[in-house]
Specification:
This protein is α+β, with helices and mostly antiparallel strands and about 400 residues long. It has helices at about 1-15, 25-30, 60-65, 75-80, 150-160, 205-210, 235-240, 285-290, 315-320, 345-350, 365-380, 385-400, and strands at about 35-40, 45, 55-60, 95-100, 120-125, 130, 135-140, 140-145, 170-175, 180-185, 195, 220-225, 230-235, 255-260, 265-270, 275, 300-310, 330-335, 360-365. The strands form four sheets. The chain has an eight-stranded mixed β-sheet. A five-stranded mixed β-sheet has the order 11-10-14-12-13. β10 and β11 (about 195) form a beta hairpin. α1 crosses α11 (about 365-380), α1 (about 1-15) crosses α12 (about 385-400) and α11 (about 365-380) runs antiparallel to α12. The protein is rod-shaped. The two termini are about 25 Å apart. About 30% of the residues are buried.
Amino acid sequence: MRFSSVLLLSTAVLSGCTVTSSSGPDFRSIESQASVKLVADKKGGNKGVAGIDYALIEINSKVLGYMGGATAGSMVSGFGGGRGGPPSLPLGVGDVVQVSVFESQAGGLFIPQEAGSRPGNYVSLPNQTISRDGTVSVPYAGRVRAAGRSIEEVQADLEERLANRAIEPQVMINKISSRSAQVSVLGDVKSAAKIDLSDAGERILDVISEAGGLSSPGIESYVTLIRNGRSAKVHYDYLTSHPQENIYVMPGDVIMVDRERRTFMAFGASGLNGRFDFEESELKLSDALGKAGGLLDSRADPAQVFLYRVVNRDLLVKLGLDTSKFVKDEVPVIFRANLRDPATFFAVQKFPMQDKDIVYVTNSDAIELYKVLDLVGAVPATAADVSSDVLATRNSVRALKN
C-alpha cells in the first residue's frame, strides 16, 4: 500500500506537479502555454495550434531556410546617398576664405597705373572668416552674403558689384579652412574628433578611419548616423560588407560608434549556467551548447533543448503560422531542438545564434522521479518497510535507465 502511494506521487509530479525544485519550466508547460506551435506531427508535417503568449517552433530543415543573420536598420533607406556624386558643400559661418580680384589691365580699381604690364594683374585680400551674419567684406563691394551659397555664386555676385568700378573684374575665392562642413565622430573610436569635409566627399567609413578606426571588435560594434533629428543604426560588419550602406556624410552629421557585447544565457541541465560571450563572428546553436558545457548526461533530456528569442512577425508569416494572436510586430518565440534525432545535430550546426538569446535544457523525466523519491525518503518513516520500499523503487528506476 505504501509502495503504491509512492508510485502515485511520482506519477503526479511527472505530470506537471511543482512539488520538486527545478531550474525552469518543463517541456509540457512550454508546449501547453504556446500561442502558436510549429512542430512535427506523426506524418512529418506541421500543424498550428492557438494559445496564449508565445510561439513554439521546432528546429528543422524548413525553419533553417528562414533563419538568416540579423541586421539593424539601414543607412540607405533612412537617408539615401549611397550612389551618385558627393554632396555639394556651401560656404558657412566660421569658414576662412581668401578673396582675389583680377583686372584685365593696370590702372583700374585694384591695379595701379604705375604697375604697368606684369604677370597677373590681381590683388589678394587678407584672409577673413565668414562672420556670424554669414557675410564677407570686400572693398568697394561691401558686405556680401556667403553662408549657404556656393563659391561660384559668391564670386559671380562680387564680379557684378565691381563691374562698374574695376576693369573687367574677375573674382576668385579660395577656402583656406572649413569650420561649417564638419562631422563629429564619437564613441568607441581611437580618437574621437570633428572631421573637416572636403569637396571630394567623405563616406561613413572614411570619417571613422580619420578618427583612428574602431577601438572595439568590429563584430560587436554598431554605427549610428544622426542627422537633422533623425537617426539610423547598422552593424559595423554589415556596413563594411554592403557598400551601398556606406553613404556620404553631410555637414553637421554625428557618427556614433557603440560597442554592444554579444552574449547569450544558458540555464537548466547544461554543463555550465550563466552568461557567455559570442567571441566568434557567426556563432551557431551547436557552438553555444558547447560553450555552455554541453548537456549533462545525468540530468538533461536531449529531446527538449529550447532557445528563447524575440523575432519579427514576418518570420511566422513566412512559416505559414497564424499571427492573429499577437498584437505587436515583435513576437516571443521558443525554438526546440530534439537532439535525440541524429539529423537535428546537423540542423543546430546551421542554426544562427543572436544577441541575448537564452538556451534552456530541461531535466529528463527520470530526474523528476529521483527528486520525488529523495523527497519521500527524507520524510521520517514510522515503519522500516517504508524506507525499504522507497529504496527498492529507486534502484528499479536506475536499472531501467541503465
